[in-house]
Amino acid sequence: MSRMWIICSRELRATLGSVVAYVLLAVFLLLSGYFFYSDLTFILLISSFTPASGLWQWVFLDLRMVTMLIVPLITMRLFAEERKLGTLELLWTYPVRDFEIVGGKFIAAVVFFLFMLLPTAIPCALLYYYQPYPLGPLFAAYLGLILLGIGFIACGLLVSSLTENQVVSAMVTYGILVFFWFVTWNEEAANQAMLRVLLGLSLFDRYYDFTRGVIDTSDVTFFILFIAFFLFLTWQSLASRKWRGVP
Fold it and tell me: Is residue 32 included in any domain, yes or no?
C-alpha cells in the first residue's frame, strides 16, 4: 500500500506542477460560478419560494455537464503520457504491482477532482449565511456529483491505459460518456424491457435523483460497482502486457 501512495504523491506532484491543471481548474470554477449565478437568478425570478428551493437540481445538472467536459482532460495523460515517454516501462522495472499503479493514479485523479470541487462550496456557504436552507439536499447533490465524477475518472483511466495519444484518450472517453448520457434519450426505439435495462445502465439517470436530494442505496451501489468494474478493466489492461510478450 505504501508504494501505491508513493505513486499517488508522484502523480499529484506532476499534476500540480503542470500549467494545464490550473487552466482546467480555472475553467471549471468559471463555468461552475456562472451556472450557479444564472440558476440562482432564474430561480429568484420565477419562484416565490426561498432561493434554495429547486436551485440544487438546476445547479448540479449543470455541474454534471461541466464535470463531463473537464474530467477526460484530467485523465487523458495518466497512462497515455507515460506510454509516450516510455516511463511506464521504466515503472514496471520497479518492485510495484499493477494494481498499485492503477490505484495510485486513480487516487491522485480523485484527489485533484475533489480539490476542484472544494471552491464550489463557497457560493453555497454564502447563500446559507444570508438565507439558511436545509443542508440535506445539498449534501445529497454533492454526493451524487462526487460519485459521478469518480465514475468518469475510472472510465478515463481505462481509456488512457489503452493508448499513448492523449487526444485520442480524451476523445474516446468523451464518446463513452456521451453514450451513457444519450443511451435512454430515444425511448421509442426500445421496448419496455430493453428500456429498463438501459435506464439501469445510465449514469445520468441514476445521478438525477441525487440532484433532487434523494440518496438511493441502489444508485450508490451502482456507482461503486461501475467504478470498480472500470478499475478492474484498467488493471487487466496493464496485465495484458504479459501475454503480449511485453516485459
Answer: yes
Q: Strand (E) positions, the chain?
A: none
Alpha carbon 121 to chain centroid, angstroms:
17
Cα 105 from chain centre: 14
Task: Give pLDDT, residue 125.
Answer: 92
CA-to-CA dists, residue 108 to 16, 17, 37, 41, angstroms? 10, 13, 30, 36
Task: Give the closest residue to 134 by CA, choosing from 46, 217, 54.
Answer: 54
Distance CA 221, CA 48 (A): 37
Give the integer Cα–Cα distance in Å for 131 and 63.
Answer: 22
244 within a domain of the structure (yes/no)? no
Element (H, E) at 226: helix 217-239
Those residues of the chain that have pLDDT short of 50 are 188-189, 245-247
What is residue 108's predicted lDDT score, i.e. its pLDDT?
Answer: 93
Domain span at 219: 2-239
pLDDT, residue 196, reads 62
Is 28 contained in some domain?
yes
Q: Is 246 domain-assigned?
A: no
Return the residue matching grid coordinates 504523491.
9
Query: In the prediction, which pLDDT does 121 show?
Result: 93
The C-alpha angle with vertex 157 and arms to 91 and 245, in degrees rounded to 5, equals 45
pTM, to two decimals: 0.89
Task: Count how many domains the chain has.
Answer: 1
